[in-house]
Structure formats: structure tokens, C-alpha cells
């Protein structure tokens, strides 16, 4: 996502649509209990025992800002805005990066609001961030590991919130408790460093290539070493949902690509190298060589019409799709001499058939 697009959406927000969520709006579910209850000074939640109240106040997301810790100032973005809609569809890591850089609070998404074990968080805390952030942060960390940028997120320890109209003093206590099943946390000054509880074998599973990549030349051009966010076939599901894996076949999971083209990921990249090495095929209509090969294989495998293929690949029309298919097809025919011989002989079997299947 381009930051200029975010800034444009940011400027389009209507100030009148943003209302301040006050401490008084937090529901008091225990107001009918006896009058000797203890009450939290910050969120007004009531407790039967003073001990429970003091324990709660240590981690209350709406407690006063600790003057010794610098709070990150965030602007609350309303749920119905175009900016909120765009950011909510981004990957967790991208959302965190943009929100920290631009100073955004996304209700129910960011920042993460952790609480003490056994202490219920009122629903209104959702107005200040994500009250169940463990899975969100886990996905962000896995995305960061896949991209080769390490297993650590650096976040502010405290936040203060404001709308476009006025400043607020709310500051959630956001670091994970020691009982978090998936996350470790270190506190250093006004920062917290969060990483995944992960074994070396699990780390390798996220970072190593999805298959044996030895000898695959064009594959290497789409790795993190060349500036791509992840290695081929290691992208998180958000990248697939928000991207176009037909135009960018490296977005597919290695185990999923075979369902589309009837060949493993390694076989696909071997064939891409075969086509590329002929030096007869050039990129066309914004499609890379792997995408053009993928288009050719989709047509030969699934027999979609060119109009459908043009729509899925984001091409202007079916004529362009047909032109690209025939470019690849003629390259295959000119350089894979065994294919025409096998197709005109109805009696071939055994090794020739296997060879034909591999080439196709």
C-alpha cells in the first residue's frame, strides 16, 4: 500500500463523523451489586473486593499515563471511513507499520490491548484498539519472518488517543502478560519488543524455500534478496487475497499451484527457465515471463475462454490474452521438438508419455 494513498484518504476524513469515546461510556455491568463495591478510578468498573480493584488498576487500559513513559499519540479513525476500510484489508504487518508511522488508532484492530489474566475487558475497550491481539500479532510476526526481517516487533509501551476535535488521555497497558501462549515480550524504556515463541524447526519452516530451488534461475529474481517482501510461495494469505496470483504466480502456496496448472511449483519454475532460455519471449502487457507461462498453462490445462482469462489476468481484452497464449505456444513448439512427434503418434506410451506430460 502506498503511503500517498493513505494520506489522501486521511485528508478526506470528515471531522464531524468522529466522536470522542469517553471513559463514561464504558458499561458498568456490576452496578446492581451492593453499595460497598470498590471502583476503578479510570474505567469506573466496580469490584466486590478492594484487592480485585487494586489488581485491576495495575493493568487497566484506561489508567492515567505514566509520566515516566512517553506515550505514542494516536488519532482514532472511525470504523465507517474509507481509510479504516482500506487499512483493515491490509496484512497485519503492513497495518502496524502504517499505523505507527501515521499515528492511527483503528478500533478493534490496532493498537494491541492486552489485559491481566482473569480480568475481563469491557467491550468499549474495542474503541481504542484490539482487545484480542495475540493472533493478529502472531500473523504479523510470521509475515515478518517470511520476509527475512527477523522475529521481532518493536511497539510503544503506552498510547494516548485523540480525535480530530480533541485530545484524550487514555493509554492502554499493552504488553503481553507472561502467560501469553504464543508471544514473548521485553520492556526497554518506553518500548516493548515482542517476538514469537517458536522453535528452530518452526523458524526454518517459515524461512526456507518451499521446495528444492537448486538450479532455478528465474525463481531467484523473485526472492527477498531481490527486494520482494517474501520468497516465492511463502506469502501470507492476505497477500493472495489482496493481490492477483494469476498475474503473480509466486503468490500461490507451493501445494496450491498444482491444483491450478497440474504441475508442482518446481516443475513450473523449471519450465519457466526453459521458456526464458530460448530468449524468444518478451514481457507483454505488463505480464512477466512466469505470468505468461502461467496463462499458457491455465489455458491448456483448464480450457478457459480467452475472455475469462483476460479478466483474471487484468488484461484489456480477449485478443491480448489470445496473443500472449500463442506467443508462448509457438515458443514451446519451436523449442520442444518432441511434443509434435508425440501428439501425432497415437501409439506412444511409457517414457515418451511421461516426457510429454512434464513438458506440458
Structure description:
With 360 residues, this protein is mainly α. It has helices spanning 3-11, 50-57, 82-88, 92-102, 134-146, 200-207, 237-242, 254-261, 265-277, 289-302, 306-313, 318-335, 338-343, 351-359; strands at residues 38-39, 46-47, 72-76, 104-105, 153-156, 159-162, 183-188, 191-196. It has two domains: 17-23 and 66-201, no CATH class; 209-359, no CATH class. It is built from 14 helices and eight strands. Helix 11 packs across helix 12. The longest helix is centred in the last third of the chain and has 18 residues, at 318-335. It starts with a helix and ends with a helix.
Topology summary:
Blueprint: H1 3-11, E1 38-39, E2 46-47, H2 50-57, E3 72-76, H3 82-88, H4 92-102, E4 104-105, H5 134-146, E5 153-156, E6 159-162, E7 183-188, E8 191-196, H6 200-207, H7 237-242, H8 254-261, H9 265-277, H10 289-302, H11 306-313, H12 318-335, H13 338-343, H14 351-359
Parallel strand pairs: 3-4, 3-6
Antiparallel strand pairs: 1-2, 5-8, 7-8
Helix pairs in contact: 4-5, 9-10, 10-12, 11-12
Strand order of the largest sheet: 4-3-6
Gap from first CA to last CA: 36 Å
The tally of helices reads 14
Question: What is the residue-averaged pLDDT?
Answer: 75
Helix content: 25-40%
Q: How many discrete structural domains?
A: 2
Brief description of this entry?
The chain has 360 residues and is mostly helical. The chain is built from 14 helices and eight strands. The protein is elongated.
